């Protein structure tokens, strides 16, 4: 088993790909074709914020890591309607409320209930919240989905790097940590804080949450 694990690690080191960016097209399909202001929480190097800018009047990206915010600014064309700020969403967000709020692989760094409540406050009536998050596997269902993700992960790494002399660059994010909240706990808190939210476990050790503000 250890030999297999080491082989997989070597394979992915040579063929990296971005699990979070994999869900960007899925996020866009949940959003209107055009909308006003958008907020991307945990924006990293800004890939999703720049995609949102193709539909939004203005996009605000926020991240706690000053270095990654600097990189996001450097990668963004001056004419793009995107601004990046260093900050913690729990302590306040410039502007708002927002018609769209997105948050990818970020809420597990914060107290989950507080994070959901703050994201709800940032959202304008009628607006859409989309979260792609990480959860701690606990049930047999969680572990089965995780097991299914392994061959899918290998296949995606092969496809996304096929024909490339160098590995596809992976979007930069702030340092991460493992998720501590189980999917059942996430669902319970989301139903309390965001009545009517839709949640689903996904491949590649992620879950999705969508909610429309009444």
Please summarize what this structure is.
With 214 residues, the chain is α/β, with parallel strands linked by helices. The chain is built from 7 helices and 7 strands; from the N terminus they run ααβαβαββαβααββ. Helix 5 (112-122) runs parallel beside helix 7.
Description:
This protein has one domain (21-135, 177-212): Vaccinia Virus protein VP39 (Rossmann fold, 3-Layer(aba) Sandwich), CATH 3.40.50.150. It has helices at 2-14, 24-29, 47-52, 66-75, 112-122, 140-161, 183-193, and strands at residues 35-41, 56-63, 82-86, 98-104, 123-133, 198-202, 206-212. Strands 3-2-1-4-5-7-6 form a seven-stranded mixed beta sheet. The model is unreliable at 152-159 (pLDDT under 50). Helix 5 packs parallel to helix 7 (183-193). It has 214 residues and is an alpha/beta fold. The radius of gyration is 17 Å and the shape is globular. The protein contains seven helices and seven strands, in the order H-H-E-H-E-H-E-E-H-E-H-H-E-E. 37% of the residues lie in helices and 23% in strands.
